[in-house]
Fold this protein.
Amino acid sequence: DVKVTQSSRYLVKRTGEKVFLECVQDMDHENMFWYRQDPGLGLRLIYFSYDVKMKEKGDIPEGYSVSREKKERFSLILESASTNQTSMYLCASSLGLDGEQFFGPGTRLTVL
Amino acid sequence: LAKTTQPISMDSYEGQEVNITCSHNNIATNDYITWYQQFPSQGPRFIIQGYKTKVTNEVASLFIPADRKSSTLSLPRVSLSDTAVYYCLVARMDSSYKLIFGSGTRLLVRP
């Protein structure tokens, strides 16, 4: 059974903290994605990666960075967390960029 | 990239066919359409994908008219377990890769 796991289901951080969200997939997929999901806004793409050490900005990259040192792992980094980054963060992976994306369960981040 | 618009919510009863339409007026030639289903506390799950005309799989059908400015997800004979949020996604793969999700349609299936 294909699987995308995220390091935490719930996370509470303080303004200004550096936050790491980890995502691991076991399907040997080339592509990995980070989204945030907010009520009424659907899913918005933050960053994606199509290969190890390769990354591309999505629609809302400001305030975020990513790291992909290994094929199976894609990390989202909030350099200095702010309250407007309180959200649900979803990671996904896919074999092809035009293919089905497999999502993790999400991390609900609260920044106080 | 095409902005996607979906109804916020829909109600149905068990056994009925449900059609959820997504508008994407500015869709381009190379854009393709995908639908996802999301249950509470879970990530979205792929339902179906299409480019034009009609696509059918074991759980749903996707109708895309010739002008491709909208798409309709059709769920035959829904059950209570189909209560979920449904998202349409328009994606472009050319010199820039763009993904635009709709804001989702909350489907409630009643007994």
Notes: Chain A has a mean pLDDT of 94.
